[in-house]
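INTERNAL AUDIT FORM
Audit reference: QA-55
Scope: verify that the stored structure record matches its stored sequence.
Auditor: D.O.
Record contents follow.
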Amino acid sequence: MKFSSNPIEQKSFEFALDVIEAYKAMVEQKEFILSKQLLKSGTSIGANIQEAQAAFSKKDFTAKMSISSKEARETKYWLLLNKYGKLANVPVDGLIHKNEELIRMLTAIVKSSQAR
């Protein structure tokens, strides 16, 4: 599904959709706590990127993208807990890979916007 021509917006949107699917699978297996945390942080990445697009200054843009980066790192934590804690039988390796790509992209965006 094409959401945006901006790569970080598109990837974060697709990632959020994948997180929603993982959340549904986890809830079907009666895993409610970790799944909710994953849903919140995983969908927040793209929401904060969207907020950054409407930033009123470069400093505001950097702050919003930094929040998005933090949410991506939190999401990685929940994904790894699911993988190694085995609370639900939901494959997350693909999500971890996509999440790491988002973290790399967000880190580069934040660093370059701070340098300006």
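Auditor finding: record pair retrieved intact. The chain has a mean pLDDT of 96.
Action required: none
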